[in-house]
Amino acid sequence: MPFDILGKALVDYFEGHYDQDIITHSSLEEEDVLPLPYLFRNFKDMPLIEQRALEICYGNILDIGCGSGSHSLWLQEIGLNVTALDSSKGAIEVCQKRGLETTVLSEILEFKQNGYDTLLLLMNGIGIVGQLQKLKDFLNHLKSLMKPNGQILLDSSDIIYMFEIDENDGGHWVPRNVDYYGEVEFQMEYKGEKGPIFDWLYLDYSTLNEYAARCGFKTELLVQGEHYDYLAKLTLT
């Protein structure tokens, strides 16, 4: 089994053993830091996109890629029925210790329970798709989990700004070895140990709208952030 980088870090922080953050390596930049305290933030410290998403959740909610459970906890505290799902064993352990009543340890594509009013994918939650070619199947799977009048709330970022502009035609220089410029390879490192390399998807709103329509969804842009990020709502047409 690959080392559960995220889970190990979350457990350490929760148990009071915080002395290092997660280091991320990606195909976009050599190294960055993911501060562990940020993963345990409360509602008032969340960005506007996350606050807005949480405020419009309703009914039976599935928090996909819940991490430490901060979003689920807020929803539970205001009286909503929320299930926190993550593929990290350590993350689910922390969620349970923080008081979440309903948790599931599973990959989302292996999760089959349906009947949800709100599917929540925050902190660039749609990124777990990994590659654009997998987006259609992913959205169809989400469709199978939700009620006909349900909603999907997700955020992402358009990272085209990270690529140089061609002075001749105004276009952007993007890598030739990827099918879509928002496909990025990531690797997490914690306390000197590295996890497996995995694919992550940053999805611009126009492309999301196009693929969602193919799957029978109507897409609505709810919030545009200050850093090319956005919050979108998908409902069935």
TrEMBL record:
One of its GO terms (biological process) is methylation. The keyword Methyltransferase applies. One of its GO terms (molecular function) is methyltransferase activity. Keywords: Methyltransferase, Transferase. Residues 61-150 form the Methyltransferase domain. CDD domains: AdoMet_MTases. This is Methyltransferase domain-containing protein. It comes from Croceivirga thetidis. The lineage of its organism: Bacteria, Pseudomonadati, Bacteroidota, Flavobacteriia, Flavobacteriales.
